[in-house]
Amino acid sequence: MSPVVILTALDLEYQAVREKLAGLRLHRHSQGTLFEVGRLVDGRCQVVLAHVGKGNLSAAVLAERAIAEFRPAALLFVGVAGALHAHIALGDVVVATHVYAFHGGTSQDDGFKSRPRVWETSHVADQIAQHLHRTGAWAGDLDPRPQVHFGPIAAGEVVLNSRLSEHAHWIREHYNDARAIEMEGAGVAQAGHLNRALPVVVIRGISDRADGTKEATDREQWQPRAVASAATFAAALAEELSAEGSTTRSSAMPETNRNIAKGNAHVGVQAGIVHGGVRITPETSRPEDLPEALVGFRSRLWQAWADGHLDEATYKAAEAELSAADQALEGEMPDRRNALTLALKKLRGLVGDVAALAAELTAIIALAQSLS
């Protein structure tokens, strides 16, 4: 089961999500970024949590880093925001259906012309979030129960705390359907867009009204109350998205069945349901299957580490050998088959205590040895 990555910008946002997790383990990225990996206290979903700091730029960079490192089923951004409509109460939750990057534009003699970028939340993720809201079970013991609003969120590079400023006028004129305003959603949405439309959902608790009263609402402790609501909704959504991804993967029947036989053994047919005639042809070398096999193995390797079947040192050493295998496969040197096989055999030695991984590697090695 692939994890769900949850990113936050502020410490209190991070802590609100962290309180929803158990069995936390520290994961250090090679460039120094620290992630915490755990499971939802009230669920089965595995969650990767990170603090990205303020702003769309840092959010985009660390979102991309998290996606590459963990290959998640979904990515959520959880935090606080300012409401842009009077009917949205303090403490309510806004779930983005679209994210506007509203600072894009061109400056001309007759004024500044808006050139926004817009990212739409994936249909599947939006449908799951909407259903979760309708059932009402997500709120648990929150009292009073906050309302959940779905709609666009505006993401820029400034904190808006005025109804009268030029910035406020600009938002009302060009983005009047935006429910809330914040500073990281555009970066996260862009990272998701660049990774094969990874489901990305921005979830914001309303802590102020972006109208000049932010200091007062902060003194009244609306930030922790708002982010508690957002974190609660995010935890419930993460569980649903993880289950959806698991169901989709398990229900999809592969188009082909690969069987590897050695020595004098021969494989006839291995399949679920066969329609029509069956034709048996000799096994041929198909190196194009190797990249997909290595990608799948990397996901299961990470899962074994996350589940505690591999220690941190072994996992890092295994990742290094897997990267060496990737490089050998992509290379053009004459001995790439030998280099690939050697890296895979070293990898098998490292994970030998995990029988399923060792068995999978045996099949991958046989496939690698068929390379010409």
Automatic annotation (TrEMBL):
It is an enzyme of class 3 (hydrolase). Pfam families: PNP_UDP_1. One of its GO terms (biological process) is L-methionine salvage from S-adenosylmethionine. Gene3D superfamilies: Nucleoside phosphorylase domain. Keywords: Hydrolase. One of its GO terms (cellular component) is cytosol. Its EC number is 3.6.1.55. Residues 3-237 form the Nucleoside phosphorylase domain. GO terms for molecular function: 8-oxo-7,8-dihydrodeoxyguanosine triphosphate pyrophosphatase activity; adenosylhomocysteine nucleosidase activity; methylthioadenosine nucleosidase activity. This is 8-oxo-dGTP diphosphatase. It comes from Nonomuraea rubra.
